[in-house]
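Supplementary notes for students who missed Thursday's class. We covered one full example, reproduced here. Read the sequence, then the structure, then the short commentary at the end.
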Amino acid sequence: MRNILEIPNIKRQNYKKLIFIATLFFILSIILFPIILISFLSLNIEDVVEINGKIKDIEYKNEEYVFYLDDDSEYHLVSVVSGHLDKEELEKLNGQNVILYNLEIGRENDIIGFTTDVYSLDKETGFNYVKDNSLTGTMVLSIMLSLSVIMLIFSIYKLCTTKKTARGDVFKLINEQTIPPISPARKNILKFLLIPIILALIFLIPMCVYSEINTTLFYIFLALFLVSISASFILTLILLPYIQKREIKEFDLLYQSLFELKGDNFSPLVMDQGNFLVFKLTEKGLEYREEYEADLIMNSFVTGQESEEELQEIKNSIMLDIRQSKNNPPPKRKKNKNFINYFENSELIDNTLIQYDELNLTTKVCFKVANQPFALFISSNLQEMQYPTLRNDIFIELTEDIYYYIKKYNIKVNGLDRFLQNRKDFMTKYCQGVYKGKFSYIEFTDDDEKILFNSFKQKTVD
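Structure (token representation):
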């Protein structure tokens, strides 16, 4: 079958997201950089003014020392300077005559040093502390601005040079458009990884709200914020292989139940995800009837207490809804705007029976890197001239019900038993893209396996 169609190029969507992130960083840097740069360039030791007085008291609050003079005035020693002073020496200054050095470009009552007969911090040293701190802030913002500009230019260039459409294979789309539920192993470990993210958010609040840019406190919270974000990223990279091993072990145990099937409470109805048609597994082959889709829906909610008349009424109502939805498909929701309808226009004549010999069934597996280590599909290998109204090959995901009928009718599926018997080894071998986030697509036979899509990797088309 065709199994190939033209789809929107996913890479372009990723570059658009990158442009958005780079723009945010660029705007933030543009806002902060001039403020810090002007502050740095305005620093001049000649602007330092001397204030004479007598110290009545010294108090430490908000990361800085406050000098109270006997004329009831108060002066704040900026926090970047306060961190270099000896607390015990400062306690001896009460009652001392003092010369305070006021830096006029800061707050009106900011000082960068003082001179007494007991303990002093000369204005040159205090000024250098302030200037070095301002220089550090300027350099950090310069790096942020440079990186955001580089990232913005790169992402815009890549967006402009990337084709709008690409070749998409149906087997890929079946798996890439389906998001499996998060595994228990991953859920438990991700709770632990939330701790540094929560800490980062906690540090972000005082950094943005309470801290002035040219203060030690601002850079302390900035450093704590960056350390927390980095810790979350590093821990994630370290734990990813461990999470994957846990998921492989859990999934291996889950598939063990396939070999322990008992009873006959299994449904022969199957959904073909390649064409979105419902078939019935019979002894001779796959049988298609329009009513099977309604039967499959009914199986999910009927209680068994309904009468035959009630069941028929429910079935007729479902079939009517199905026909209406096919004739008038609902508009795309924003949530599913990237969904690709790869099975559009696939149809079959009612009461069609496709024999197993015609299907040439084989085993195709998508190996994943998170939550669900693999998805196993029974796939047909039809020629386009056999059933020209089918858009794609038939893809049926293996379930306990399907496996039961495969064994009951002795249906030949090339490579199925070999894969199931060695599933853990194959998971370990092919679930290797834990850091890259890539899937592996493999077709299994009774003697070998074949890597799919290696030849084009979503080739672009004009």
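Commentary. Residues 455-462 have pLDDT under 50 and may be disordered. The CA atoms of residues 344 and 391 lie 7 Å apart. If anything here is unclear, bring it to office hours.
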